UniProtKB/TrEMBL annotation:
Pfam families named in the record: Dak1 (PF02733), Dak2 (PF02734)
This protein's name: Homodimeric dihydroxyacetone kinase
Ranges of residues in domain DhaK: 7-331
Keyword Cell inner membrane: no
Organism: Cereibacter johrii
Gene Ontology molecular function: kinase activity
InterPro entries documented for this protein: DhaK_dom (IPR004006), DhaL_dom (IPR004007), DhaL_dom_sf (IPR036117), Dihydroxyacetone_Kinase (IPR050861)
Record carries keyword Nucleotide-binding: yes
Occurrences of domain DhaL (ranges): 363-562
PROSITE patterns: DHAK (PS51481), DHAL (PS51480)
Keywords recorded for this protein, A-Z: ATP-binding, Kinase, Nucleotide-binding, Transferase
Length: 563
């Protein structure tokens, strides 16, 4: 188990202490794992309706992250995935509530139900009226148990938000409870897990899942789901979840909705954003009108990879509570839905290719480009593997995009070698991100200049073109032979070309020698310590693996030699 903690037994108090140290609006209740709003009046008679929630830890930012103006008054933190004690909950009620009463918002798990309910009874005996709202939004259990026996999931935080805004507005306990119950009754949520999490005190994953498997309909405590299925793309997974949510909601889905896409702890924002985009598009196709959207980590399961989708019907009053301002730092400042497909167009002159009739080299150039494209596409897995070991892993994908881009060149691009190089430069500049795009674009532009004057360039023109392209790469990147870059394939290739040409070899023979030298140069990079690029951050750890950029050069030169 690798976790950045001090002790498995100290994770909760350490976390709460850190949260208070970072936020002046929070304080700790002495002797208890309870977070409070720092602005709670000392005199209970001056206190408004208190909102209290909590449960087992490991769901951060829930629930302590939602303590603040406009949301919770207090959050009670149990051990990881373990309900807090009755006394801790009662202490939170006494510290935050007064005659105006307290609303307890509880996820529908047995331990939480029992402990929060008993604490409410004890608080009432002390003169503090309490209402308890249970959240049971897990739609995946619709065919297994009745609604009142289902689990509480990420939708719980929308109850926090709506009820918190109502309490902040000065509504009475019964009115705040009605707002909370209305939201809780209408919520539906379903999650998908791509892997397990590790509870600190357990030290091992809570279950095993194959590389091509996912768990549908899981809770938030590292448990298995209702159904195991094959791994699929975001569109398919989203559709599977929305099918269940629509079956639960019925006609209510075809009205104004709030949508929450919640990460379970280890899902990057990129993937959550893609799921959110799919959910918006698919809900529109189903006749829904999504008016509010929240995307991010709201209720997690430690470091579990996966996500959940929550839907909530909206009316004007509910939307008012959900959009009311809050002092809680982690809550999004806005939930307004954007406009699908909205974009602006940058005015720029259209790029045109000069009208030149096809030349003698047109079929040769087309065949050569096709060879290069096929070679780069075939090399994608190998280049990705190399770049993953000593870089950021994107080289294979970049070369694949380059291959697709040059395959799509217009026919007119092949009518003259210089025209082809200039057109390829513009195409690759747009198609390849990172450093490869500028390197290849600049090299091709400079290589085009010696070829401009002749329809069939002389051997000397090709000599100059090759030399100009290689020099351009070193000039703009600063790399020299021995730095472990693409130059370590280009430089020996150019030397081999020059030696062959000095010996009166044909261009074909020079090209074959250049390709062979490029491969030898690429292989030699495995023994070099990198001095430039992302691999340089690894130092000696990169030794033993060919440089991906040099290997890519060897691939396309070998393809040219065969063409």
């Amino acid at each position: 188990m690798k976790k950045l903690i001090n002790s498995p037994r100290r994770v909760v108090p350490d976390l709460l202490a850190a949260m208070v140290a970072q936020d002046p609006s929070l304080c700790l209740l002495e002797g208890e794992n309870v977070l409070l709003r720092a602005d709670i009046p000392e005199d209970p008679a001056d206190r408004a309706v208190a909102l209290i929630s909590g449960g087992g830890s490991g769901h951060e930012p829930a629930h302590g992250g939602y303590v603040g103006k406009g949301m919770l008054s207090a959050a009670v933190a149990g051990d990881v995935f373990t309900s807090p004690s009755v006394d801790a909950i009662l202490s939170a009620i006494l510290a935050s509530a007064g005659p105006a009463g307290a609303l307890l918002i509880v996820k529908n798990y047995t331990g939480d139900r029992l402990n929060f309910s008993l604490a409410a009874e004890l608080a009432a005996a002390e003169g503090i009226p309490c209402e308890v709202v249970f959240v049971a939004d897990d739609a995946a259990l619709r065919d297994l148990v009745s609604r009142d026996r289902r689990r509480g999931l990420a939708g719980t935080v929308l109850v926090h938000k709506a009820a918190g805004a109502a309490a902040e507005a000065g509504l009475s306990l019964s009115e705040v409870a009605a707002v909370a119950r209305g939201v809780a009754d209408d919520l539906v949520t379903m999650g998908v897990g791509l892997g397990a999490c590790i509870v600190p005190t357990a030290g091992q994953p809570s279950f095993e899942l194959g590389d091509e498997e996912v768990e549908y309909g899981l809770g938030i405590h590292g448990e298995k789901g209702v159904e195991r299925g094959p791994m699929a793309d975001a569109a398919t997974v989203t559709r599977r979840i929305l099918d269940t949510l629509e079956a639960e909601m019925g006609a209510a889905l075809k009205g104004p909705l709030g949508l929450m896409v919640n990460g379970l702890g280890a899902t990057p924002p990129m993937e959550l954003g893609i799921v959110a985009g799919e959910a918006l598009a698919q809900l529109k196709q189903r006749g829904a009108d999504v008016q509010l959207i929240w995307t991010g980590n709201f209720m997690t399961a430690l470091e579990m990879p996966g996500a959940s989708i929550t839907l909530l019907p909206l009316d004007a009053e509910r939307r008012k509570w959900l959009e009311a301002p809050t002092g809680v730092r982690v809550w999004p400042s806005s939930a307004t839905v954007g406009m699908a497909g909205r974009s602006v167009q940058l005015p720029r002159p259209a790029e045109t290719i000069p009208e030149i009739a096809p030349g003698p080299l047109t079929p040769v150039l087309k065949a050569a480009v096709e060879r290069v494209a096929a070679a780069l596409i075939a090399a994608e897995p190998h280049l990705t593997d190399l770049d993953s070991k000593a870089g950021d892993g994107d080289l294979g994908a970049s070369m694949f995009r380059a291959a697709e881009a040059i395959r799509a060149l217009p026919e007119a691009a092949y009518n003259h070698p210089a025209q082809l190089f200039v057109t390829m430069a513009a195409t690759l500049r747009r198609a390849i991100a990172g450093s490869s795009g500028p390197f290849y674009a600049t090299a091709l532009m400079r290589a085009a200049r010696p070829l401009e004057k002749e329809e069939v360039p002389s051997a000397e023109a090709w000599d100059a073109a090759f030399a100009a392209g290689v020099a351009a790469v070193s000039a703009i990147g600063g790399a020299q032979p021995g730095d472990r870059t693409m130059v370590d394939a280009l430089d020996p290739a150019l030397k081999a070309w020059g030696e062959q040409r000095a010996a009166n070899a044909s261009l074909q023979e020079a090209l074959a020698a250049a390709a062979k030298a490029a491969k030898s140069g690429a292989d030699a990079t495995a023994r070099m310590t990198p001095k430039l690029g992302r691999a340089s951050y690894l130092g000696a750890r990169a030794v033993g693996t060919n440089d991906g950029g040099a290997e890519a050069v060897a691939y396309w030169l070998a393809a040219l030699a065969k063409a």
